[in-house]
Design brief:
- The protein starts with a helix and ends with a strand.
- The strands form three sheets. Strands 4-7-6-5-14-9-10-11-13 form a nine-stranded mixed β-sheet, with helices on one face. It has a three-stranded antiparallel β-sheet with strand order 1-3-2, with no helix packed on it. The protein has a two-stranded parallel ribbon with strand order 8-12.
- The longest helix is centred in the first third of the chain and has 12 residues.
- About 28% of the residues have low confidence.
- The protein has 244 residues and is of the alpha+beta class.
- It is 14% helix and 31% strand.
Length: 244
């Protein structure tokens, strides 16, 4: 009898073939509803230099919506999109786009911001023929512009309110942007924003630093978050901004 009890105890002490931790052995992709997968997510298909890979797959719908038909409600599936972004190589940014003090011969007064959209540089003019230079991302083809404005407002971790034109433009491509998005690390405006005149253009940070040095925006000037914070502290409302 004692022997049978010992045998039974030893069997009960054996580990189970499958336990709760097994569910974590298979890492499943994060499913993000297409309605919130806006322009900031589509940036993951950007420069090859950063080795960013985005693979989009259609998956069986997991949400449904009610559609009224002849007084009755029919349930239809809502399509979702799976994004599997590969973490970009942030350390591979071209060194020329990192902040540095350079020789800069200009007639503009110290404190003026000059943005060279062709070469993807922003210059903060300094005394003695010098300038602090930053790498930037600029407007994509069809969204380039040039002109002169002043910084009319500054904001930390700004909210994003995409204009109606952008919402309509992206909706035509099947990308549905939110009406607004609170400031934060996932926000496409990044850590800081400096608004130019009465336009919709801004100098702002980004949640996609691997796009610096490229024409990727809808006209705004984007910077790495650490760079836009540095610039933000050096300029004030009323600063003259020249875009060439």
């Amino acid at each position: 009898m004692i022997r049978k009890c010992l045998l039974l105890a030893s069997v009960l002490a054996l580990p189970a073939v499958a336990d709760a931790s097994d569910r974590y052995k298979v890492v499943r992709p994060v499913i993000i509803e297409s309605g919130i997968a806006g322009e900031w997510m589509m940036q993951l298909g950007g420069p090859v230099r950063a080795q960013v890979v985005r693979r989009v797959e259609r998956q069986p719908a997991v949400q449904y919506r009610k559609v009224r038909r002849k007084g009755l409600f029919d349930v239809q599936p809502v399509e979702q999109v799976v994004y599997r972004p590969q973490k970009p190589a942030y350390d591979r940014i071209d060194p020329k786009y990192l902040p540095q003090v350079v020789d800069y011969d200009t007639t503009y007064k110290p404190g003026t911001i000059v943005i060279d959209t062709n070469n993807r540089f922003l210059y903060l003019v300094m005394e003695g023929g010098k300038a602090r230079r930053y790498g930037v991302g600029v407007g994509k083809p069809g969204f380039e512009w040039a002109g002169e404005h002043k910084i009319t407002r500054k904001a930390e971790w700004p909210d994003w309110h995409p204009p109606k034109e952008m919402i309509a433009r992206e909706a035509a491509k099947g990308h549905f942007l939110p009406a607004s998005m609170e400031g934060g690390e996932a926000n496409p405006l990044g850590a800081r924003a400096m608004y130019l005149g009465s336009t919709l253009y801004r100098i702002h940070g980004t949640n996609a630093p691997w796009t610096i040095g490229f024409g990727v925006s809808s006209g705004c000037i984007r910077m790495r978050n650490q760079d836009v914070v540095d610039l933000y502290e050096r300029v004030k409302v009323g600063t003259r901004v020249i875009v060439i």
